[in-house]
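Same chain as my last thread, 556 residues:
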Amino acid sequence: MDEASIVSALQDDLKDYKVKTQIRRRDSQLHVLVTRDENAEFDYNSLYSIVKRRVDELAIAGARELVVYGRLAGARHPEWQKSAEIKPPLPLIELDLEELEEIGKELGNLAIAVEEDETSLQDDSLETKFSNEYSSLKASLEDDLRTAGELTNQGESPELTSLEDFNSELEELNNDQGTNNDLNLEDLDLDSLAISNGEVDSFETIGEVIGNMQLPKPSHDAEFDLHSPDFNSFSVVTIEPPTFKAPVKSQDSTDEDLGDDFSIDAPTIVNSRPLPPPPPTKRKTTSKVVEPKPQPMKLATPIRINTVSLALSIVMVSILGLCAWLVWDRSVQQQYLADARDLENLNLDPQKIQNLSLLADTRNRIQSAVAQLELIPDRPASLYAEAQVEIKNLKPKLAAFDRRVTIEYAANNNLELAKTNTLDAALMVQNPPHTSKVWKAAQAKRQEAIQALSLISPDSAVYAQAQTRLKTYRAELVQISKWVDIQVRAESIASDVNPAIATQIQQLKSDPSGKENFLKRCSTILQPEISSNDAQRLGLTINNLTSYLCAYYWDS
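reply #2:
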């Protein structure tokens, strides 16, 4: 990026501050000069922040350090300076979309194992097994009661226990089934009720055994309790070898005969089944999911790489890449030549350009074009010869523009210096009279201004303006020199004044009323001490001589 583009960008950012921006490159340093008007007051740090941000955004090639100067218009030296390192732009972050998709799939396949409470026991299976045992006992009792009821309908037995009482007790048993889950079934001696197949050969034998067994009669005064000792222990009647004979059914049979054979008071025998063992109190363990490791694929036939074809492929790719780079480099060289020829066809004349900014911009464009042409190397398929021809044509123009820019910059600086010194001299001698010291300082300022104007080259665009100011400044210098001589002559008789009067005049300076009041009171005291002979000898009137001496006492 050339200096003109940088200046244009900075000027756009600082357009609200009414300042003038200049730029100069020195190796890796970028110097920026900001000139302000004397009436404009602002913070240089704010301007520095704007300039620093813009320079960082422009990413100027080769620039590593930024130096910003702040100067008052017309001043020779800057009044403010700050430097910093130019930060290079951050590189762009390239994202691999395929890699992001693979990461997303891996995250989606992750399974979160839900841990269960390891301290919980297998209570559900235990309750289910006990419930099944009670259900089978209930079903067996109901079947036996239903059979006994059918037989009773044919004829009532004198030993039949009240069926309604037994049913009520059965209902209480069913109700207690849901609440008394802690029933100790191991206390039931069901093995004593077992009947071997060798002892009973027929249904009649089983019936006689059941008839000889006695079921304990329930008490109507006590409630049916599953936890009572009577329920948990059965009284078993010893069974002797049966001598039962099957009854012969005839038409004269009565219900009393049936009652002798089968009695409801006999206990109901339930086929005993071994209780299941208590469930083991094992803690649940969460199985860890082990992901299978991918096994390397084994090819049936190994791949054989043809080294010759691989080498040829690499050579072909290299040749294609080299050809593509040569085409691109030649297109860049052609663009450099086109830019240089455009500048050459403009017929630029540095003497015809009066604007200093336009003159510097044109010089920078020519300098950039020459620098680009010098980058073209001397090798085959290169435009080196054409570039050297254009360099020879542009270098004389570049030298002429450099000389003109140097002259104009020096002339403008000298003109601004002369204006500043003249203004300072005029401010110093306001509200006379003054001491000879003040007049001599103003005289020196005028002399510096005249010297700066005399250094402006005749080839400069501001030479005519400098000559006009030079005549005016020389005439003003003559007047100031006269005042210096007059004040020196007036102060020469200060030693002749009475010391008491001089002390009295010095005491008047302590009055805060100001200079004008001091001069009036001083003239009243000092005028009688001045003789007319002294005034005539100095070529001054008594009033003027008195005022000059009072001014001397005020500044001394």
